[in-house]
Amino acid sequence: MKTVTNIVILNFLWVICSLPVLTIGPSTTAMYGVIRKWHLYKDESVIRSFIYEYRLFFKQGFLVGNLWLFLGMLLLLDVYFFLQVPGTVKVVLIVVTVTTFILYMLTCAMLFPIMVHYQTKGLELIKQAFTFSIIDGKTTFAIILIWIGAGMVLFYAPLMVLVIVVPVSMISFRFSMLAFDKVGKLPRIQSRYIPFTTGSDPRSS
Questions:
Q1: Percentage of the chain with pLDDT > 70?
Q2: What DSSP character marks residue 195?
Q3: Rounded to two decimals, what is the model's pTM?
Q4: Which of 14, 102, 110, 115 is the most buried (most CB within 10 A)?
């Protein structure tokens, strides 16, 4: 019951802090930060951890999260407008946009888990998310399918947002950790991308 209660509270915090829309990035980052603590450190705190993660990652979550949200909306709008274009030009434009959207989804699958797990920022964060998603394509594909399923549930039952986001994020984070363990063993990746550890992670104190 304690685990269920913690999940409900974290989901509620994410919804409330995401209501201004522009704060979806920081809220999502904070949520993943708390989930990471649950997964790695067995830290069962929720409200205190969420506030700490929110403040710690506010700038990065705001910039990267909102940039990524804006880019996704722009790609969807492009597809809509290109469907109105007559002739063969429409096919070319749609193919290019859909291809770009697929690459966007691949990066999305790893973006927030990497943000809270690795010591990387800015464009390097996006590059790392894309690199990991390509190297471990099977895990990335599984994460995308999970979120597509959640998206379909939310489309038909929007109020499910009050309970479904955190459980799905927990599952996707566990898949992400599998990818981190696999990709992190590659010498080039291991030397370039350093994960937070118990000693170096300010969130673990």
A1: 96
A2: B
A3: 0.88
A4: 110
